[in-house]
């Protein structure tokens, strides 16, 4: 496995290209084939009742998969999601950040497939599972 961007480079890239989300998402670690990303849960991520909203959970999965791909191919801002499927399995824990553990399943020249498991920080059972396919633009 060749790493084109480490966690620090990915965080700098997100801050530069997507400043609107820089305060909400962060790449925590890149270890082997697994990237871990964090959603820093704040009021804008909650739905009535105080739980993290489905769109926020989905966004974490999308950011994690995007960063996992970029960690291998470098800063390609125009890589885009072409397919996504998410299973919401349990309610996230209140008042805690969410972590996504993302694994690349296939990295080709034009398509990448990855899976992300989403956890409430400190808990072992996943909150959601997401499978995504990304289109990688030609060089």
From TrEMBL:
<dbReference type="GO" id="GO:0016787">
    <property type="term" value="F:hydrolase activity"/>
</dbReference>
<dbReference type="Pfam" id="PF03061">
    <property type="entry name" value="4HBT"/>
</dbReference>
<protein>
    <submittedName>
        <fullName>PaaI family thioesterase</fullName>
        <ecNumber>3.1.2.-</ecNumber>
    </submittedName>
</protein>
<keyword id="KW-0378">Hydrolase</keyword>
<feature type="domain" description="Thioesterase">
    <location>
        <begin position="49"/>
        <end position="123"/>
    </location>
</feature>
<dbReference type="InterPro" id="IPR006683">
    <property type="entry name" value="Thioestr_dom"/>
</dbReference>
<dbReference type="InterPro" id="IPR003736">
    <property type="entry name" value="PAAI_dom"/>
</dbReference>
<dbReference type="InterPro" id="IPR029069">
    <property type="entry name" value="HotDog_dom_sf"/>
</dbReference>
